Structures are given as structure tokens and as C-alpha cells.
Amino acid sequence: MTETTGRTAAGSEAPGRTGAETETTGRTGVGTEATGAMGTGTGVRIGVVAATASGRTAAETLRAGWPDEVRVLTADKAADALREAWRTCDAIVSFLAVGATVRVLAPLLGHKTTDPAVVCVDESMAFAVAVLGGHHGGNLLAHRLTGVLGCTPVVTTASDRGNVTPLDSYGADLGFTVHNPDLLAHVGAAVLSGEPVRVEGADGWPLPPLPPNVSPGAEDAAHRILVTDHAELDCMCHEGWFGGALVYRPKSLVVGVGSARGVSAEEVGALVDETLAAAGVDPSSVRCLATVDLKADEEGILQAAAARGWEVVTYPAETLAAVAVPNPSEVVRAEVGTPSVAEAAALHGARAHGRAAELVAEKRKSANATAAVARLAPRGRLSIIGLGPGARDLLTPRAVAALQRASVVVGLDQYLDQVRDLIRPGTRVLASGLGKEEERARTAVAEASAGRAVALVGSGDAGVYAMASPALEFADEDIDVEGVPGITAAVAASNLLGAPLGHDHAYISLSDLHTPWEVIERRVTAAAEGDFTVCLYNPRSRARDRQLPKALAILAEHRPPETPVGYVRNATRPDQTVTLTTLADFDPARIDMFTVVLVGSSRSRAVAGRFVTPRGYRWA
Fold this sequence. Notes:
The chain is α/β, with parallel strands linked by helices. It is built from 18 helices and 31 strands.
């Protein structure tokens, strides 16, 4: 399927999966860990307050490190600066004692989902303590401060200490909201205490894992978690229709609207509300309002959507005309070029945001408008993660986050053994052995296609001689794919040897299990003739020992005998070995499949025992 381009209410070109921007006064309203509030710094305001000379120096260090995010607030009194930061910023770094910070901010506390995250850093810059909003950016900000100030993050939230998905950010990156947040603490305590908790409605959503005591099969559990877009109905019991469950509202609905020119916002809004109520679904689960392009400037539609906090997405009439609907109208076709606007826009909008769509409310009419509602089946998520060369400190923070976000992790058994301590309780781990690459790729894609959050892991970078390529060959448009970069064995080996990749270079795998040797030989010859530094992957195994000597012989035809050759076995791991020799003295018998071999160009040389390929700069 080719995704049809839609337009937002503002008229800018965007695919059907456009994101609404809801600006609030003062702060941007970051409310979840997943919004990136303390991540890459896009559009986020971090207020920094200090009262001492060392604190002010550290504040300037932060401003220099994060110039697009940090705002250093000054006032005659630090307390006034803190209050200003609270009012205008998304997060606060306070170079004051925790007690002093809390005394100033305590009267201003509202709700943890809307209050700024607060981190306190002590005078010696030894610790960054997440004081407020831990699951809403505070914990992440404390960790980020480590990179700039060198302090140790102090995180006290129970779910983080137990490596458990926090309930207050469960599904937040999917747009989930909590219907009854007053139950978060009660149910969260049961989850962390290991009590049985029954979860319903989560299957099919790419949600992070919850511990094993939280499951659909916990029939007699005293606590429940419910994911639903259904409206809560009044009933006789004191707990209400949901029976005391902690309820999450997914963004699973798309409202389709058509109208006559000049329709009022009141009429559109009343019809939409009536249609949702008749279908028994809750407005907080509406992802967007969809209509035809001709209505992109229809004020009644725009105002009704804005009043409910919904984005408006429009689609061309010819796109909507291709959508099968139960109630087409030739009158509408003659007027706007499609036999359906409300039903077709709802269905097409839901399909654009998910992997399937169903109509849950057929077209309803008022004097000047029509409305319909569709429910989407969400896309699954596949994160293809590079674990790096082996050392834990070379595993990227993004890789750790993606690994902990997945409810299903697929990988080679020996790679999974490296990160089992990072995988959250309740995650389903699917391990397999060497030679099962296709099986792993197909399994990961199948799990994601069922709507789950899946991590497919490999060593180094998953896109370099690893699992990304086979997985993407099987993946279709009904899953969202994220590639998480990793540090490759070649990059790790290069840094251990010196700077062999300082100029143009080529990577070549010598494994002829899937590539004929004749093809590999041509590639080695081309790299040799082009005078590239060459990095050889899969150089030699017990059953395949002839390829490496042949490749070296080809390279030797175009290199002097003293050309440096470096090889690294188990780069960055405890039994790592690093060797620098020459093309003339190199011994292929010392190489195995855990080794990366780098052969220099004709301009490479050894300098003070280090492998260097000059950039060729002329220095002034």
C-alpha cells in the first residue's frame, strides 16, 4: 500500500500520521518520560537555578552543553528564581539542597503528570537527585547530567530500582492517558509487591512488559488493569462500570466528519458527541478528526476539533472515493468527488494510523453535517538493536531504553546472555543458536505484525553484517521499525589500533556461505586497486581457512610489504587481544571468527606503534 498524503488543518503537507501540536501557556506540557522531554532537547526548556559561585559555574557549563534547552534564571533570591522556573519551564535543575528546594516548591505542587521534573545537584557536583517527576523526565534528566557534570544519578522510584515498567508512563508514548489516576499508587503497589494483577485489553498494543504477576490469566486477582476505549456506563455498584480497575485510554479512534459549507462548530460538536456516545466509546480515545481536503478551511469543523483538543487531518477526495463504506451517497459524490466523507475519512484515517480499521459508528446526520467513527488496530513495533562490540559501557543508552521498552526480545543466545540483566521482568525472550538468522528475523517480524513491541538484537551495529537486513526483507508497512545504532567491531578495533580508517575504506566479508567466492574476490580486487584501507569481517573459521590468504595475496599485489595490518580479537571484551604487524609478516593462522582484520592502504603507516591512515590534509 502506498501511503496517501494528508494535510493538517494548517494546510501543510504531511502523511496521514501527522502529530498535533497542543501549545499551552508557559510550559510545553511534557507529561511523560516518552515524550523526549529530557531526551534530545527538542523544544524543551530546562530552568537552572543556583545560589553559590560553584553552582553558577555549573549552570553555565550546562548552558554551554545544552544551549537550546537551558535557561539560567537569576533573581535576588534563589527562591524567586525557582518559582519562575516552575512557572515557565518543563524541568528544573536546582543547585540547592533538596530540603531548600522542596520547601520553596511544595506549595506549588499540582499533579506529577503536569508539574515540571526537578533534579537537585549538590554543591560538590557529586550527585544528581531526581526529586520530582521521576517518571516524567526527572530520572532521565538525572542520568543526562552525568554526561555534562560527571555526577552520579540518584533515582529512588521503586519501579526503576526494580527495573519494572512504571504504571504512570505505561503506554504514554502511544498516547495512552489514565482515566482514573487516583488508582495508580494502589495498583502500582500491588504490581511491585508481586500480588496478582489481571490485565485486559492490552493484547495487540505494542506496550512495554509488566512483571509476570500481571497477566490476563490472573482470574481471582484483587486488582485489574484495563485498556479500553469504551465509555464508562453508570451502574448500581459503587465502583462503577469498570469495577475499580485502573483504566488506560488508548488513542484508537478516528472521527470522520463531512459538512455543508458554513456549518457551525456547535452543530459539528453536538453531532460528534452524539455519535461517540451512541457507539459507547470515550472521546479521550479519539486520535484525530478526519475529513476531505475541501473542508481543510471549514471553521465549524476546525473549531469543534480544537475545542476537544483533536488534530484535523484531511485527505483528497479521490483517496476517500476508493474506500468501501456501508452508506455511500451519489449526491455527495456529485458535490465533493467522493460518495462518502465521514465514513471514508474515519476508515482511511484509522488505517493510516494503524494496520487495520473497522467502523464502530456508521454515518449519523444532522441538518448540515455527518459523522462516523472508526477504530484502528495498532501497528506493532520492531526495534532492531545493535548491542555494540561487547563492553557494557559501549552499549548505548538508546539501545538500553529500546531493549527495556520491548515486551518480546529475539536474538542469538550468546548475545542475549550479555544483556539479560537489563531485560525487564515479564519480557518474553526468544533465543536461538548460530545458523538461525532467518528464523530469528521471521520470528521478530511475526511478533511485531501481531501488534507487539519487539526487540531484535545483534552485536555491533544491527545494520552491518547483522539482523537488520534480513528482518527488513520480511517486514511490511504494517509495523513500525526503529533502527538503534551500535558501535561496530570495525570501529572498536580501529580505535584500539589507532586510526586505520582515517581515510576512504571498505568493509568486505570473506564468508562465502551465502556469497560466491568469485564475487568476494572481485570486491577485494576492486578495493585493492582503489587503494582503500580494507576491513575484513568473517576472515577465517575452522572449516573455511583458504579465503583470508587469497584476499591478502590480492591486496599485496597493490601494497608494499611494510603496509600495516592490524587485527583485534574480541574487541573491548575481557580477553581482548590487539596486534599490529605488516602485510609481509602477517600470519593468517592466528585469525578466527572473533577477529577483525584491517589492512592499510598504500599510504597507511605505523606511527609510534599505532596504525594510522593519513587524512591527507595540508596544515597551514
